[in-house]
Design brief:
It is a single chain. The protein is mostly helical. The protein has one domain: Amino acid/polyamine transporter I (Up-down Bundle). The chain is 74% helix and 0% strand. α2 crosses α3 and α3 crosses α14. The chain is globular and about 65 Å long.
Length: 480
């Protein structure tokens, strides 16, 4: 194994590629709104709009911090440098949990869309219940292999596949909207702006609970921060990559989800069909344009899900590498001589995702979509807490440090972000779910975070060691 330094070989577009890959707009537009519709009803785009506002407010802290810090540990480095090593380790552990559970989300999504694509082609009809698991496992193995090759090759491929599918989805969105507006929709539906109002059946609580799947769709805009040690001009390019990805995602998700709900219909029958669709934009493309475009979008969504899985493995392995390096763990912080990537950390990430999926399926007898939705909720709730920690650290560093690094009035931006995230978390746990299946998800998120806190409490010497490493890290030099 080579030394413990990552190779600088990425530019701003490749940093954007990994962010877009983890955000996976093609996959997200085709399946994430289905997780939201059960809570928010026809107001899915309203839930995604709330998530957009929250993400843009939170992006302020990330962008500001990336102008001073470039660290493979992302939030581990950010929070550690601004609020202390113990907080940094907890934040890093939390984000690692998000990447792990999102690995489950995306492997299952790749399996679901892959099975739907093969079914549409007529290659694999009458599929067994395990078909999505098989395709998801293949995606996981391939994802591991690509995650250990130089990141430059992977990000270029991801951005190309994602870009083509997003263009197809946007073309379909425009055509569907035109047919709805002109009265030529095949199902007799029309433009209905009630998708931006709160249904009585859902209420305020339902819309904010549904916003979790909006945040799930955005998750990944910050993953480029883990490439800070591999990007040529990190303090400029990483900030641009994150902010650009967040702004694009906001416009994209709100517009596409609005047209999706209108296309299926805002009545009870339409909402039911929306929730049971195998591929939202794929089915709309088939209905409004032709089967060929529906099939292509389903394939693109499968590739998008795979790209997101790859980004989870890349982001999680870099985070594991950074934390292990500071903890003195030579196994996880080892760098492959051939590719200059953290091979062992990537292998552990891959096995962790596989383990969770297998246990979830065999022990609780859950199917691919159940694991997709459940993992999404767990990972997102953890992520919201991590975002809160980063934002608090950003406020302290930017506005209350020895040097004022922004105009005083800008403090309102991260404060509003904290408020938005706080409301979303609160609405997801209050009132406390009565069904065990729903109750288990926030409990699992809490257990993951508490495990990190307990580890730090039990190993104070290790926390101090990691804190010393952070203080002396040249990539965090602005904290001095």
């Amino acid at each position: 194994m080579a030394g413990k330094s990552l190779v600088k070989n990425l530019n701003v577009w490749e940093a954007i590629g990994i962010s877009v890959a983890l955000m996976a707009p093609s996959m997200a537009a085709n399946i994430n709104p289905q997780g939201s519709v059960g809570h928010s009803g026809r107001a899915v785009p309203l839930s995604f709009g709330i998530a957009t506002i929250g993400v843009l407010l939170i992006a302020y802290g990330f962008v500001r911090l990336c102008q001073y810090f470039n660290h493979a540990g992302s939030v581990y480095g950010f929070v550690g440098a601004t609020t202390g090593a113990r907080s940094g380790v907890v934040a890093g552990w939390g984000l690692l949990g998000t990447y792990t559970f999102y690995g489950c989300v995306t492997s299952m999504a790749a399996g679901i869309f892959g099975a739907d694509f093969l079914n549409k082609l007529g290659v694999w009809k009458n599929q067994p219940t395990w078909s999505a698991f098989l395709i998801g496992a293949v995606a996981l193995v391939l994802g591991y292999w690509l995650a250990v090759v130089p990141a430059r090759n992977g990000t270029r491929m991801l951005l190309t596949f994602e870009g083509v599918t997003v263009v197809l989805i946007l073309i379909t969105t425009v055509i569907v909207f035109i047919k709805l507006a002109t009265g030529h929709a095949p199902n007799g539906n029309h433009v209905d702006w009630s998708v931006f109002s709160i249904p009585k059946s859902a209420g305020f609580n339902g819309v904010f609970v549904g916003a979790v799947f909006g945040f799930l769709s955005f998750a990944g805009f910050e993953v480029s921060s883990t490439l800070g040690e591999e990007t040529n001009n990190p303090r400029k390019d990483i900030s641009r990559a994150m902010l650009g990805t967040a702004i694009f995602g906001g416009f994209y998700f709100v517009i596409v989800t609005a047209v999706e709900v209108m296309g299926f219909g805002t009545n009870d029958a339409g909402i039911k069909a929306f929730g049971s669709s195998g591929s939202l934009m794929g089915d709309l493309g088939t209905s409004f344009i032709g089967s060929w475009i529906g099939t292509m979008i389903s394939l693109g969504a499968c590739v998008s899900a795979f790209g997101c899985l790859l980004a989870c493995l890349v982001g999680g392995s870099r985070l594991s590498f950074a934390m292990a390096r500071d903890a003195g763990n030579t196994h996880l912080s080892a760098i492959g001589e051939k590719n200059g990537t953290p091979v062992n950390a990537t292998r552990i990430m891959t096995l962790a995702v596989l383990f969770i999926v297998v246990v979830w399926h065999l022990v609780w007898n859950k199917q691919a979509f159940d694991i997709f939705a459940g993992s999404g909720v767990i990972g997102t709730l953890i992520l919201l807490v991590v975002y809160l920690m980063v934002t608090v650290g950003a406020i302290r560093f930017i506005f209350f440090g020895s040097t004022k690094r922004a105009p005083a009035w800008e403090i309102i931006i991260p404060i509003l972000g904290i408020g938005m995230l706080g409301i979303t978390v609160w609405e997801n746990i209050h009132p406390w779910p009565t069904a065990w299946a729903s109750r288990a998800l926030p409990i699992a998120a809490a257990i993951w975070l508490v495990a990190g806190i307990a580890f730090i409490a039990a190993k104070p010497a290790l926390a101090n060691k990691m804190g010393e490493k952070l203080r002396n890290d040249e990539n965090l030099s602005a904290a001095r």
